[in-house]
Amino acid sequence: MLAGKAERRPRGELARVLVVDDEADIRELLDLTVARMGLSADCAASVAEARHLLEQQRYQLCITDMRLPDGDGLEIVRLITERYGETPVAVITAFGSAQNAVAALKAGAFDYLAKPVALEQLRSLIKSALSLPRRNGGADGGQVGGAAAQLIGESAAIGHVREMIDKLARSQAPVYISGESGTGKELAARLIHDHSARRAAPFVPVNCGAIPENLMESEFFGYRKGAFTGADRDREGFFQAATGGTLFLDEVADLPLVMQVKLLRAIQEKKVRKVGHTAEEAVDVRIISATHRMLKECVDTGTFRQDLYYRLNVIELRMPPLRERDEDVAPLVEALLVRICGPQPPRLDPQAMTVLKAYSFPGNVRELENILERATALCNHDRIVLDDLQLAPATVVNDSAGRDGETLDDYLNRVEKQAILDALAKTAFNRTAAARLLGVTFRSLRYRIERLGIEE
Fold first, then answer.
1. What pTM was estimated for this model as a whole?
2. Residues 52-64: pLDDT tens digits?
């Protein structure tokens, strides 16, 4: 099609794609590729032509170059995001221009392609974009907003999380989920995946802190038969297992620096090399990462690469701690008791609920679930009373302002230290059991004990 020509078709006959590029040969390549996929394309050579076409026609996808004669692709990304939110936008960037790609993703772009455009990647991108669920009911009749209801609560904090998940599910951008242990980071990652264009492909969660350092490369990228002693067959890695889907890197801050370099290359090049193989293979995965630690602080201290940080943290989703959403405690208790006990769970005594709402929850929702599991085992008949909760008084928040002259960091460290000491005392200083009681990993507890100077 000629640039600027919008040929209207009967609604629903063909999915339409808007192609914006000032190079005629690129427009022709994209137009031909779209046509061979059974789709229809309108082409524009400038931002002005693209604006004109958008006013005339509704599109299921827009593919735009970043450099245009009268502006740049970010203008089109922002325009479509603001006015035509149902239309995903993919941008074409110059080879190696990571900064432009990240800027486009932050502005709301669905995904990006680097020049020279690889046709296989282009076709994969188009298929993914066209399979996105619609906000008012997708191709499978699902609703993104409804699915995020798995995040229980009506607080403003959890409402913001739901809105972010809705937006992130309609993008291919890497997401970094921050938050304390037990706040639901993996649940948020699953929700993003389950309601994205990748929902039919695997969601592969990986706990980066649980993999021995000498096995990391083979676990992530796979290996060929005979690559090392014991490699008696070819094996796929996490990247291959997540092909077409989402790779969730939990506790990503625990990756050693050597592995961080290899992960960075895999993300940048979208290729991996199996251990014992000379050739690289293309991989198509979306990366979602998370950690309970402050990743920026890890960058500042030199334990996490800055370039990898910016690759992973294109868009950040913060999961709020439970102490910031105390109005959600009651509905969480109700839902968790049904999950633990079935449709007729025991009732929570009003005094017990009051104390729970005042509790600091260092282990967040995971700790609340552990408390309720213990309480249901201890309670008589159908009523949970205060004693069944077995909460240490020192961990109930009744002094939120802290002591005179005490800084916020001092106060938080004091509360955290007391919670750990109480858990250790209850478990006879069994660190594994204490970590389970607090709703954190053993490695996390060990790190906190060392940081706070707790001695047995």
1. 0.75
2. 999 999 999 999 9
